[in-house]
Structure formats: structure tokens, C-alpha cells
Amino acid sequence: MSAENSSPALNVEKSIVILLDVAGTTTSNTFLKDTLYSYVTKQAETFLKESWEEQEVKDAVKLIKDDLDQEAAIPLIKELTEKNSDNEGLKKVQGLIYKKGYKSGELKAHVFPDVAPALESWAKSRKIAIYSTGSLESQQLLFTHTTEGDVSAHISKYFDQSSGSKTESASYETISKELEVKPEEILFITDSVDEAKAAKTAGFTSVLITRDGNDALPEEASKNFPVISSFQDVVFDKSVKRKNEEESAPTEEERPSKIAKTENGVEDEKDKEEKKQESPVKESSVDAKVEDEPMEVDDVAEKEGIADKGDVVSEPSAKTEEITKTEDTATNKATEEKSDSSQKLITETKTEDEKPMETDNNSVETTTVETIVTELPKEIKVTEVTTKDTEEKKEVKNNEEIKKIEAAVDEKPCDKEELKEATKSEMNKTEIAVTEAIESDKTENSVASTTLEIKETTVEAEVSKKETEELKKQAEIKESKLEEPTETKVEKEESKKVDEEEIKSTENENLPTKVEETKTEASKVVDDTKKEDQDEPKIISTADTKTADTEKKVEVEVINKEELQKTDEETKAATEDTKMVTEESKMVTEETKMATEESKMITEETKMITEETKIATEETKMATEETKMATEETKMATEETKMATEETKVATEETKMATEETKMATEETKMTTEETQMVTEEIKMATEETKTEDIKMVTGETETVSGETKVPTEETKKVAEDTKLAKEKTNVAIKETNVATEESKAVIEETKVATEKSNIATEKPKVVTEESKVAAVETKVVTEEPKVATEEPKVATEETEVITEATKEGSEETKVATEEKKSPTDESKPETVESLKMETEEQQKVKPVEESMDAEPSSVTDTKPESADEQKETVVDIVDKKEEPKVVENGEEIKATEKKPEEKDSTVVEKENKSDLANGIEKSNGVGKEVTNGNSKDEKQNGGATESTDSNVEDIKVKKIEEAATDTTPVSVQV
Ligand SMILES: CSCCC(=O)C(=O)COP(=O)(O)O
């Protein structure tokens, strides 16, 4: 061993297990990257498309990522492979893809040149195990298909990431426990410093290796770990090998050759090598130290796996898989569910698995049996001790037989060693045949275990048969020695040999496959022996006629016969044993079947539960999402409700303002109307009070009364002027009224718009409320499952409902308020119209001027100036000042706006008077228009259109006043 400079010394002697990393240790990284991974990227698509429905593929893909569909899986697998990901699922998929490549010969795994020889050498005294991120299947495939041949025979166990991460010390502790070997007795060789550290932390002896193509190791690495560059650097001192092994057990090279010679006479090295590879366990040595610290190695399971060159073996999950396969080859796709019963089954099967290996060794020599018995779990020990007893019994029996024969046939003593060898060889041959049959039948561990039990008994039967044959042979040899010439003897021997070989080969073909056949064979042996026994006396009777030598022969024959009888009995007993064992085996098989069925059911149930859990999880996720969405919707609805409430508020404010404006406009209109009325009234009064003469004067008419010509005075003219002005003022007032009416209209429009807005604003919350309600219902339904999540949306929903209700109420109130506000606005116009109508009606009540003249209203009476001049003055004052209409009350001027309610009455009276006057004027005017009727007609024609009617009424009124003021036509006065 050569460690690099300044590296710690490498002491490997205490190591009984060598644990090896793969990439960068046994195999080049370049091979992995350029060949394996590249193969995966090329084959991924085809492979996944072809094998997507296979359970192991599904399981592996699922392990990469849950719910991965084919389209997504293909690029992901490629990508992860290119990234050299250690994803466990990926490694499993890769393993499945490699399988195809290795099987077809497309792939051949690289191992560094020193690997195969080192493995072979180490395996003689140590156990070798592999620990890689690659899946168990990948590992097995790799070591089975290397450029150096199949080196998997030297490897006892494989570990993958199911034992944990390679950079975590806990994983190494797990491996140590799995191997049942102390950590300090495990040597770990790797190229990774992190892995070396983790293993060292767990107590392993870690060794770093440098390889071509690897990254250089960090400098401090060599200070902490021994560094090697080849497996040749690790050499074990042979002296640590177990004494027993050195003393009695044949070496690796010796044993198979001996078997070969015994069995076939000639067996080439190739066959020998094949056998070695097929049954590596049989050949692996067990170190003395292993006795102290039992090491559990799943040898048979591995052997089966190796035989199948693709089945994953070793980890509990893989074992479960194996068991499932065993019991149901039709549905032999494994499950990795780790149920309790599966675990139990694993233990049972494992126990059974371990037996054959040890039994094989036991059959080779008793000392080995003892050693192994100490290593085995209790349950196995019972079986093993029984086996050992049987073996010892057989040995003793053999020796006795041999001694007896030796004594009887002193000319040619039986070769004890040869007999032993023959027995051994027979058993080995049977075992190989059984193993082959197991492999060919694709029977798995548990069946193998039961079959191996059968095998044991078969071997016993075989031994018995062999003994019988041997004895027979001895007797024949002796007989022929005595009777026949050498030539005949040789011929007979040869012919017998040929026969035996034929039988053997037939037996070897048939033995392992059927228990019943084994039984038959055993019975056949007994029958044959009996037959021969019956034949024997014939020979003896022939001998009777011969010489004294013949008598001696007869004695020998008798002895032989007795011996043969004994053997016969033993054979019978063995056959009985065989039967019993067969029955037991059947029962065990049945039990195993049942257990497997249970395991299957549990697995199915577990799967279903897992599926259900998944679905439930998905549902919960969806429900949570829906709840979230509903909550969001509720939030939004609440926001919208808030906004709508705000809008409603604004609309309400606007409505209020509009209403206020309308009110004001109405007030203005009223006032203007009243002013107009007052002015009109005043004019009327003034006109009334003006004498006909005065009117004439006012109109500037000259008249000759009683021969006296009267010319209108300046004063009269002025009155006329003033009247004109009053008329204009009235016009202005009317225009103002019109403007006010227009404004009122506009306000009404605004109010309408505001009302519309308000309506819309009221509708919006309603819609939102509906939405909220729907959302709330959805939320309720959706949130049934996640109860906790339901509480919030419920509260939110209820709040929303409350808010919505409040909003509704608010909206209703707003509506009502809007309606309320609307009505005065609408009424403002009718009010004006009504008043005007009233006026019109009043106007229609045509009263004779005389009557109206006679009737002097009290108010008018009160305000009536005492003289015509005073009256005129009053009118002039009003017109001149062009101010707010004034009412003169008891000589005091009061602003129209300041008028008291009682004053209104007087105004009304004045109005009536004015109407009377106007009517009187019109009536008296023969050429005057039918104003009243016309007005009435207009109203009808307009369909009651208030605005036009209003203005018409006003116009008519103004015209009347104008006419009254300006018309100097005597006609009017004459009336
Ligand atoms: C062992 S077969 C495939 C190898 C593989 O995929 C891998 O990643 C090996 O890495 P490690 O260093 O963990 O053996």
C-alpha cells in the first residue's frame, strides 16, 4: 500500500467490509457523463413512451416529482441527467433505462483496470459492498456488465440513497447497522472528500482515491485522509484469515476444480468461472472477525438478483418487491410500500434466504457449520443445528459403512476421502441444479427458501442413494474381483458409470423443479436398492456352486445385505423425513402465499389510502383556493359596496343641492310673479282711477267737450311715459321669470340626472349585494371542508350582508329622499303654472267693469290714494324707481319680499281687481281679441304644456297691461 505524502497511514487490517463508491472510484466520471448519461438523454423519450404504463416506471417518475405527466417527464429527466442530479427518482429511471442498454449490449460499464483484480482478491477475506447514488439496479447492472467482465460475484451488498445521503454520517451508521458490522471495521473508499468526512464521522475508516479524470483533491484532504491512486494500494495481510478456513476449507481456486473433477471428469475453467459467478456466495470466505461481529448479508437474495441481472435486491423496499414477485409472477411488479406485514415478511424471507448459503457451507464441512451457526439468528440456528446433526449423522454413518465395507473387502478398502468427495460433489451438483431450476423458473426468495429446505432433504436422500450405490459398487467390485476377469470388471464399471451419469443428469434436470419428483426419486432409490437386494441372493446362489472362496463371498454378501437393509431403512426414514419436510414446505409456501396476499392487499389499501389522501389534499387545496377567491370576491364586493355607498351619498348631496336650487328658483319665480302681479295691479288701479278725461289727456287726445277743447297736460304725458316704463319693467320681470323658469327647468334636468345617478348608485350596491350573496353561498359550500378557513369568509360574508343591507336601506332612503326632493322641484313649475292658471281662471271670470269698479276691496281701500293725483303719484313712484315692487300701505313703502301674509291677501284682492280690470278692458274693447278664450284654447292646444302656457299667460297679461297703459283709444274707455 502506498499512501501519498503526508497522508495519514492506512491501516486496513481491522476492516472486514470494504465499502466502495462508484463514480470516480471504481468507474470513471467520463464514462458516466459521456456514456451512461448520454444514453439516458437519448433513450429517455422512447423509453418513457414505451414503458409509461409500467408500475416501476410510474413509481420512479413519481419519485422525481409528483403528478408528472409524460410530456413533462421527458424533458425533465433529460435536464436533470445533464445536470448530474442525484434525485432518487431520476436515478431509478436511469437504472431502468440502463437495463435496456446493458441487456442489448449497447452499454458496457467502465471499471478502472485495478478494480476487478482487487475485488477478486479482497473478496477472499473480506466482504465488499457498494454505496452509490445510482439506484441498486444501476449498480448491479454496472458491475455485472463491465469491460472486465462480470465482477458482481465479489460484491455482497449494494446501498443506494434509500440508506440516506452519501454526505451525511447517519447514512453510514445505517449501513453499518445493516451490515451488522462495527463502523470501525468498515473501510470506505471514495473520491469525494465530503463522503469521506461523513463516513469518518460515523466511525468508518475513510480512504480517498485519486483517479484519472477526477478533480484534484483539495490540499488539506490528504492531511486528513489516507490517499490512494489504485485499489492495489489496499492489501490485506492473509494471516488475519480464519484458522478453520486455512486448515480445512479448500481455497477459492481449489474447491470448484475439485467439484468439477468429481462431477464431470473434465470441466474447463470457463464453466468453473461461470459457476463462481452464479453462486458467489458459496465461494466467499468469512473472516474470523465476522464470527465475533455477525454480518448479515443478503447473499441468496443477491444471488437471485444477480441471476436475474436486473432485479433490485437488498434494501427493505426492494425485498418487499422480491417477495411480491415470488408469489405472483403474473403480477410480479413490486411494491415499495413498507407495511408492517411486509416488514414481517421481509424478516421471514430474509431468514429463509440466509439459510441456504450457510447450509451450503455446512455441507462442505462441519467446522464451518459451527462457525456459521453462531452468526445466525436464533430461528435459523434451530434449522442449522438440525442440519448439522443430520450432517454429522451422515458423516458417522458414512464412516461406519466405509469401515464395514473395508473390513469385509480387505482387498480393496473403500476410499473414505473419495466417498466424501463424491457425496460433496453430489450435493453441490444437486444444489447447482436446484439453483438453476429456481432461476429458470424465476422463483424468488421465499420459494427459494422452501425449495432449499426440500433441497436439504433431497440431498439427504441423494446421500443415502449415493451410499447405497457406493455400497453396491463396493460389493460389485469385490464380487467381480472374486469372480470376473479384470477386463469384464472394467467393462462393467464403465457401463455402470455411464448409466449412473445418465441417471444423474436426468435427475439433475428433474430434481430441483418438483418436490414430488424428489420424493419419487428417493422412493426409486429405495426400490432400486430393494430390487438389487432381491437380486443379490441369486449371485450368492451361483456362488454356492463354486469354491470355498465363494463361501467367503457369500458371507460378505450377507453382511452387505444386512448393511444394505440398514441403509434401506435409513433411506426409508429419510424419505419419510422428505415427505414431512415437503408437507411443511407446502404449508410454509401456503403461509407465504397468504402472507404475500395480505401484503398485497395491505399494499393495495396503502395505495388507495395514499390516493385518497392525495385527492383529499387536492380537494383541501382547491377548497382553500376557492375560499381565498371567495374571500377576495367578498372583499371586492365590500369595496364596491363602500364605493356605491359613497356614490349614493354624493348623489344624495347633489340631489339636495339641486332641490335647494329648485326651491330657490321657485321662490324667485314666485317673487317675480308676485312683483309682476303687483305692478299690474298698480297699473290697473292707476288706470281705473284715471278719469276718462285723464285718459284722453294721457293719450294726448284733444277733445272738445261742450265747446271746450281739452289738451292733455304735461303731467298726463308723463304718466303715459311712466306707464310705458312700467310696461318695460314688467317685460323685464316677465323675462326674468322666463329665465327663472329656464333655470328651474335646468335644475329639474339636473335633479333628474342626479336621480338617475342615485338610482344607478342604488342599483350598483344591489348587484354587488347579489354577487356578494352568491360569493357567500359559494364560500359556504366550498368552505365546508376546511372549517377553520370557513369562519373568516362567513364572518366576512355576514359583514358584507350587514353592509349590503345597510347600503340597501341607505339606498332606499336615498331614493325616498330623492323622490321627496323631486316632488317640490316638480311642483315648483306647476305651482307657477297653477298660480298662473288661477290667474287665468280669474281672468276668465269676466266681471262687469262696473261691478269691479263698485267693489272696492278693503286693502285697496286702505291703500287707495285720496285723490287721483295721489294715485298717479303712486304708480309713477313705482315705475320711476325701477326697484323692487313696493306696496304702499298707509303711506309707507314695504318691499314686496318683506310682505306679511296678510299683505298677500290684499295682493290677491288686487290681483282680482287687476283681472277684472283687464277683462273689463278687453270686454269693453269691441275689437279686442278673445284673450280669455284664446288663452284657454292655447292651453288645450299645448296639451297643458306648462311652460308655453305660462309664457303665453304672461305675454297675454303683459299685452293686456300694455294695451291698458298705452291704448288711448276711446273705445276702450267707453266700455
Ligand atoms: C452506479 S450506476 C450509475 C452511477 C450513477 O448514476 C452515479 O451517480 C454514481 O455516483 P456515485 O459517486 O454516488 O457512485
UniProtKB/TrEMBL annotation:
Keyword Hydrolase: yes
Ranges of Basic and acidic residues composition bias in the record: 241-261, 267-292, 300-358, 458-507, 514-538, 565-673, 681-696, 784-797, 806-850, 863-915, 954-963
Superkingdom of origin organism: Eukaryota
Region of interest (Disordered), residue spans: 241-366, 458-551, 565-719, 784-975
Ranges annotated as biased composition (Polar residues): 966-975
GO process terms (BP): L-methionine salvage from methylthioadenosine
Keyword Repressor assigned: no
UniProt KW keywords: Amino-acid biosynthesis, Hydrolase, Methionine biosynthesis
InterPro entries tied to this protein: Enolase-ppase_E1, HAD-like_sf, HAD_sf
UniProt xrefs under SUPFAM superfamilies: HAD-like
Coiled coil region boundaries: none
Biased composition range(s): Low complexity: 698-709
Entry GO MF terms: acireductone synthase activity; magnesium ion binding
NCBIfam families: enolase-ppase (TIGR01691)
Protein's name in the database: Enolase-phosphatase E1
UniProt organism field: Diabrotica balteata (Banded cucumber beetle)
